[in-house]
Amino acid sequence: MKKHMFISLGALMMAGLLNAQSQYKAGDIASDFKLKNVKGEMVSLSDIKDADGFIVSFWCNTCPVVKKYDQRLQELHAKYAPKGYPVIAINPNDPAASPGDSFEKMKETAAKLNYKFEYLFDETQEVARKYGATNTPHIYILSWKDSKLIVEYVGAIDNNTDDAAAADKKYAEDALNSILKGEQVSLSGTRAIGCAIKWKKTE
Length: 203
Known about the structure:
The protein is an alpha+beta fold. The chain has helices at 2-22, 64-80, 103-112, 126-131, 171-180; strands at 29-30, 34-37, 42-44, 53-58, 87-91, 118-121, 135-136, 138-145, 148-155, 195-196. It has a single domain (26-196), classed as Glutaredoxin (3-Layer(aba) Sandwich), CATH 3.40.30.
């Protein structure tokens, strides 16, 4: 019994390690992608002209934590899109597991909340898996350098989910401000806090 338990725990630890290794971290080269936005158009990062980088945000319609950060994400876009870093929100959730995250519901959410940023549907979940996203929200700040997308920051938006005004560590803003000054990001990774991505069931 103890032997089987040891093997099972070892397998779980190895699975966790492999997942951690697969997640993008600062300095990695990120992949571009082509996903459908709420207008039904196919969008890739390379299509977005005049951008120096992106605030890629794994997002959804239903997560209570996403809803608490909704205004903050819109404010990030309003502040940093004019400076070359627009928000690109991506919904990776499987609608079969979370019907409120269907493409139709995405269109309703974007219209209701008047999203000014691109809201894309990762229907196959390939992008979320490639980036190593685990939660909604999960933020990846990328910069174009020598025609490559370089990861600058991965993690949470700030350190207070419940109260934006009480957040005394604004991780995403601090990273973006450093990038815009041409400085190295001092804190390039934090733990993403939010709802687990609703993955498709495998056969």
